[in-house]
Write a structure and sequence with these properties.
By secondary structure, the chain is an alpha/beta fold. The protein has helices at 20-23, 31-38, 53-68, 93-99, 116-129, 155-158, 206-212, 227-231, 241-262, 280-290, 301-304, 311-321, and strands at residues 3-12, 17-19, 42-44, 77-81, 106-110, 136-142, 164-173, 179-187, 195-196, 238-239, 272-275, 330-337, 341-348. A five-stranded mixed beta sheet has the order 1-7-6-4-5, sandwiched between helices. A four-stranded mixed beta sheet has the order 8-13-12-11, with helices on both faces. Strands 2-3 form a two-stranded antiparallel ribbon. β4, α4 and β5 (106-110) form a beta-alpha-beta unit. α9 (241-262) packs parallel to α10. It is globular. It binds oxa(dethia)-CoA. Oxa(dethia)-CoA (UT7) is lined by residues 29, 33-34, 37-38, 114, 155-156, 159, 195, 241-242, 244-245, 248, 278-279, 282, 306, 337.
Length: 349
Amino acid sequence: MPKTFIAGIGHYVPENIVTNKDLMKYMDTSDDWIQERTGIKERRYAHRTGESTATMGIEAAKKALANAGIAATDVDFIIFATLSPDYYFPGCGVLVQRALKMKEIGALDIRNQCSGFVYALSVADQFIKSGMYKNILLVCSEKHSFGLDFSTRGRNVSVIFGDGAAAVVLQPTEDKERGILSTHLHSDGESAEILAMYNPGTHANYWMEQEFAHFDDAEIGQMFMSHAMIENAQNFPNMDGPAVFKKAVVKFPEVIMEALNYNGYKPSDIDLLIPHQANLRIAQFVQQKLGLSNDKVFNNIEKYGNTTAASIPLALSEAVEQGRVKKDDLLCMAAFGSGFTWASALVKW
Ligand code: UT7
């Protein structure tokens, strides 16, 4: 059976840099608070109308294709991971297929939020190992800035997130010493609502009950989004930050150790750990727990904030660009987020 390797990688971030001081114009926050609690100094925001999750993903995809030395028409499957799609439906995968004038290949959208890249990598790995596809384009992109509450009410969430995209091209290799060694995927839906965007959605909720109590069956189609939902911030991401933090610092080391144990490695064998960029404090806790030195962990959250599905490939792409990843290096990627879902991948570069 062939193994899967990352044949090309690229990223795209919007030009517009938004500092912590910039956010102070809209909400009661401070540069000190944001830096102390999260490590974030600035993030990028996409052009309000000129850029979307798909357009940023497409820019990253073009770079990944060029880096792999293949044409868009060589791609035989697209995977797109995001929580901020251009449309409620269809997914962004088909928008990539259209923009890059690809063949009528399959396009799959993945909704696993912060774990989106590792989940998508795992799916791609199965398709390549089985021999079904030879060139998979995996795109991760987020335009968070279009759906955040910039009032003080939403400050615990809004200061964290930023926009950006990254993409990889995955191909088979017969080299047994190279490529994706294993992926490990997990979920626990018990706390699904503590990091979630509730509306628009089809679940029955308090705001619906209040506003639509008098509706008859013929009017039910209007219940998807209401003024009350908007007034009560139901259309913004909601997060119990401390609860997520507490779980993340347990699950990150656990899923990293699972990947290492599965392959007979120990933490000291890791050449570079690329954790999902949720909070620098979480990454530092994980680093300490595993006993890794600073040069063994790659973080870029200070520049981009949390770009959810894009965060790991964006960090990997920058690490490659900066020469931090060399042939035969053992890379570990790990994520934890909404769902909860968490995941890890071990890759021999
Ligand atoms: O990638 C998805 C997964 N997400 C995560 O992994 C996020 C995990 N959680 C976190 O990173 C942290 O919990 C946060 C960065 C979100 C928050 O940091 P915290 O140290 O847990 O703060 P907190 O939520 O406990 O809030 C402490 C105080 C509160 O004020 P009081 O009640 O002590 O007066 C908040 O209202 O900080 C206040 N606060 C802020 N103050 C200034 C919350 N957000 C802000 C803000 N600026 N942006």
